[in-house]
Amino acid sequence: MRRRDFIAASAAPAVLAPGQTSIPRKGRLKQSAMTRNFNPAMSFEDMCREAVRLGLKGFDTPADANWPILRKYGLIPTLSLATATPLPFRDGIVRRDIHDRIEPIMRADIDRCAAGGCPTVGVAGGQRLGMSYEEGADNCVAFFNRVKAHAEDKGVTIVIEIQSRFDRPDQVCDHVAWGAEVCRRVNSPRVRLLFDIYHVQVMDGDICRNIQDNFQWIAHFHAGGIPGRHEIDGTQELNYRFIAKTIADLGFTGYVAHEWTPAPGRDAMQSLAEAVDIMDA
Description:
β7, α9 (240-249) and β8 (255-258) form a beta-alpha-beta unit. This protein is of the alpha/beta class. The chain has an 8-stranded parallel beta barrel with strand order 1-2-3-4-5-6-7-8, surrounded by 6 helices. 40% of the residues lie in helices and 14% in strands. The two termini are 31 Å apart. Mean pLDDT is 94; it is low at 6-10. The protein is built from 10 helices and 8 strands. The protein has one domain: Divalent-metal-dependent TIM barrel enzymes (TIM Barrel), CATH 3.20.20. The longest helix has 22 residues, at 133-154.
């Protein structure tokens, strides 16, 4: 058994406050949260307690220092961002001239996730800055080929996120078809897509058909309302109940993370509870 699998299997049972019960879920989709879903005044421990109550499985992009707290509550870090391609994602794996420098950092990111029980590490393609999509694809495939065997050995999946012109302008990975073709060329079970539904709606639309047509390349989902990346309820243009059912019907076994911030004036916990219900396909 890999260390990452052992840690996940031996995670502490869910911890609830006295008198608190966890909401039963259908279990077809494994959902995770982000700290941005909560009132920023809450402690991370309180966020974890609420996550357990809502039937969530973990947190995307938690600070490394909070990983032991997640384990205390029977949760896991469901996605970590690679330090090899840090915010604001200007320089990513599209830059062949930095591959020698970021490869050892990427390998260390994979090791960190394997040791900490995090199944997925997210990497940024980076800005094209005048580069063609074809050259960008060649460069990204070349980088993934340098690290894929290490990811396979450690049991950690690297995901490249599909991003949009609104939040991440000029990103090379800004269309589903481009990202899927890169994954196809790399041909590794540990190199997949992070299908950000908000970003894909901006760039490609046709969400459910894109999910169905490219399902084999998708390892992780982000959910967020559009416009504004707020709640995923009836205040925005996507039918997330139908999207969740589409994903569940395909037999998805990864995680669907809530990546949205409550709109001004909304109650964060009520919004998150409603969002988890919507995605409970």
